[in-house]
């Protein structure tokens, strides 16, 4: 169950996407998401899907790993689709009983949104799969660095450091949770069966030790960092400097073509879904 | 004596049917008699923890059988949680699983899950604590205010209070000071003696093993390397050294003495027995200070 969480994991395949500058990837991801939300009809969304599949192929990360992510969020997908299915009131009525009417417009909207969420999740995981956590935070720190002109330089470094640490500890905490779950199971804790209330109660013996060990780890880490003279971002230099290359320019061009494609398809086909 | 645990041809493969498949246990077979203390030793990655996980059904064997008290534990997969009251498993660093406000409540967690309540529950907790010498005044403290050794003992008591017939402990003395180690060892012995239970201990500490174990099960690369009485295993130091393990330090000292040409027995594995032997010898020779 917990092993299904692959979000935030780095997968080394040495693809062209891996070699991009993390800043490029961050900016392009934001651009992609914005344009994904600008899609207005099935044609532009289909275009976005094709673009995504191309990226997945280039990234060389097995499709299976991406699909695992969907498994983790299927509830959100189903829930949003269902709401839209029931509240869409446009188009022909397909089924109507009691207070529920399902229309073609509702079906379209449900499918449209489901696909959009799935694309959104997968495209975000491309970033984490192809970028090491360290690169990622370096990228964020560098992108936010202009904030130092308004006196927020220290804050930028702190946030970047916090993110690095948080990402670094996801697998550790997953391991820890599994260990504690096994230990409580060995003491007869029943985590699977019972009513909803019992299930919530059954979480206490897992969450309390997990919280305590996280705090303990935080203290240990803080001490270890201080022992190595860490005193925030002041005067700190990087071992690896980020540098843009020609491949970043190429990626930017491809991405801009994608954005243009979305705009063209949006205006070409007037059928508006949302 | 009767056999309480039987492992037959146990094999476990992690990630079976994938390219990542890794066989952690290969055709392990052994049996344990009631009331015995069996030590499990072996290198990191030799399959000790995997083996231990099978004993109470947390892991399912790829092939082979585990028979507890005459019954294959996987006969009824849905009732596998029942087996957890029969085979109590104490993980490494069990103090990290403490969560209640008081020691009393934490020890009560296991028996409560078995369906005990009221006076029965109260009696059970007090009885177990008495048997393994956990002081009454500890019961009402927060487990987080205790010292490391006390926490460890309380956490182990939490599993003991379920009165498992087989108690399995993974590295119960790791990271404790000598006093803490001794009190945990004593607690395990007390539990065995009071309830005539069977105990299996995974450990790297040969000295503690020599102190407590009746038999030793040696694992190497997922296979059963040796399974014999503690005496017979430690007598074959050469064979242990072949796989990077060793005999207790005091035995090594005695070996050196023997190599110097002094006739000493080869069954001295604890400091106590060494002291005993040397004093008896020196008394025969007219005492040390003679």
Give me some keywords for this one.
A: 274 residues, mainly alpha, two-stranded antiparallel sheet, B: alpha/beta, 6-stranded mixed β-sheet, 4-stranded antiparallel β-sheet
Describe the structure in brief.
The complex is a heterodimer of chains A (274) and B (290). Chain A is mainly α and 274 residues long.
Explained architecture:
The complex is a heterodimer of chains A (274) and B (290). By secondary structure, chain A is mostly helical. Chain A has one domain. Chain A is built from nine helices and two strands. A two-stranded antiparallel sheet of chain A has the order 1-2. In chain A, strand 1 and strand 2 form a beta hairpin. The mean pLDDT of chain A is 83. With 290 residues, chain B is an alpha/beta fold. Helix content of chain B is 40%, strand content 22%. Chain B is built from eleven helices and ten strands. Chain B is globular and about 65 Å long. The N and C termini of chain B lie far apart (47 Å). At the A-B interface, helix 7 and helix 8 of A face helix 2, strand 6 and helix 3 of B.
Largest sheet of chain A: 2 strands, antiparallel
- Detail the poorly predicted runs of chain A: none
* DSSP summary, beta strand count of chain B: 10
Number of domains of chain A: 1
Strand content of chain A: under 5%
Helical amount among residues of chain A, as a percent range?
over 70%
Secondary structural class of chain B: alpha/beta
- Cα-atom Rg of chain B, whole angstroms? 21 Å
Mean pLDDT of chain B: 88
Structural class of chain A: mainly alpha
CATH homologous superfamily descriptor of the largest domain in chain B:
P-loop containing nucleotide triphosphate hydrolases
Number of structural domains of chain B? 2
Q: Based on CA inertia axes, which overall geometry of chain B fits?
A: globular
How would you classify the quaternary structure?
heterodimer
Helical fraction of chain B equals: 25-40%
| The CATH architecture of the largest domain in chain B | 3-Layer(aba) Sandwich
Strand order, main sheet of chain B: write it out.
Answer: 6-7-8-3-9-10
CA radius of gyration of chain A = 23 Å
Give the CA-CA distance, first to last residue of chain B: 47 Å
Strand arrangement, largest sheet of chain A?
A: 1-2
Average predicted local confidence, pLDDT of chain A:
83
């Amino acid at each position: 169950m917990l092993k299904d969480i692959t979000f935030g994991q780095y997968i080394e395949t040495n693809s062209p996407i891996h070699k991009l500058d993390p800043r490029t990837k961050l900016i392009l991801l934001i651009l992609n998401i914005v344009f994904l939300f600008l899609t207005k009809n099935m044609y532009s969304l289909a275009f976005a899907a094709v673009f995504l599949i191309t990226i997945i192929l280039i990234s060389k990360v097995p499709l299976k790993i991406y699909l695992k992510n969907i498994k983790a969020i299927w509830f959100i997908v189903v829930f949003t689709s269902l709401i839209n299915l029931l509240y869409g009131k446009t188009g022909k009525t397909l089924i109507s009983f009691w207070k529920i009417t399902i229309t073609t417009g509702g079906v379209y909207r449900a499918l449209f949104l489901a696909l959009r969420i799935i694309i959104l999740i997968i495209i975000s995981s491309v970033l984490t799969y192809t970028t090491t956590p360290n690169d990622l935070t370096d990228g964020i720190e560098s992108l936010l660095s202009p904030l130092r002109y308004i006196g927020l330089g220290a804050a930028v470094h702190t946030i970047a450091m916090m993110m690095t640490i948080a990402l670094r500890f996801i697998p550790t905490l997953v391991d820890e949770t599994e260990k504690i779950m096994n230990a409580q199971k060995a003491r007869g804790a029943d985590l699977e069966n019972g009513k909803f209330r019992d299930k919530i109660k059954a979480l206490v013996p897992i969450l309390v030790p997990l919280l305590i060990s996280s705090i303990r780890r935080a203290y240990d880490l803080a001490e270890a960092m201080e022992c190595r003279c860490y005193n925030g971002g002041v005067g700190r230099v990087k071992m690896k400097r980020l540098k843009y290359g020609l491949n970043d320019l190429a990626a930017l061009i491809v991405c801009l073509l994608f954005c243009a494609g979305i705009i063209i398809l949006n205006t070409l086909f007037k059928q508006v879904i949302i | 004596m009767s056999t309480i645990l039987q492992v037959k041809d146990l094999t476990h493969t992690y990630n079976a049917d994938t390219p990542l498949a890794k066989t952690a246990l290969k055709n392990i077979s052994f049996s344990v008699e009631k009331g015995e203390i069996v030590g499990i030793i072996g290198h990191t990655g030799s399959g000790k923890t995997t083996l231990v996980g099978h004993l109470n059904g947390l892991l399912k064997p790829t092939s082979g059988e585990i028979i507890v008290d005459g019954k294959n534990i996987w006969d009824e997969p849905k009732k596998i949680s029942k087996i957890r009251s029969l085979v109590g498993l104490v993980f490494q660093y069990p103090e990290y699983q403490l969560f209640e406000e008081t020691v009393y409540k934490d020890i009560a967690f296991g028996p409560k899950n078995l369906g005990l309540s009221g006076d029965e529950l109260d009696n059970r907790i007090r009885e177990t604590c008495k048997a393994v010498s956990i002081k009454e005044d500890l019961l009402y403290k927060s487990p987080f205010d205790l010292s490391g050794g006390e926490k460890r003992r309380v956490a182990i008591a939490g599993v003991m209070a379920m009165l498992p017939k087989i108690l399995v402990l993974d590295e119960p003395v790791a990271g404790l000071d000598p006093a803490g180690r001794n009190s945990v060892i004593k607690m395990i012995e007390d539990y065995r003696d009071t309830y005539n239970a069977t105990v299996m201990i995974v450990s790297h500490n040969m000295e503690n093993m020599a102190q407590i174990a009746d038999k030793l099960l040696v694992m190497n690369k997922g296979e059963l390397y040796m399974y014999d009485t503690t005496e017979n295993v430690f007598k074959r130091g050469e064979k242990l050294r072949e796989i990077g393990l060793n005999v207790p330090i005091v035995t090594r000292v005695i070996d050196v003495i023997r190599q110097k040409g002094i006739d000493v027995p080869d069954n001295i594995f604890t400091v106590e027995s060494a002291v005993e032997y040397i004093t008896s010898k020196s008394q025969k020779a007219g005492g040390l200070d003679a």
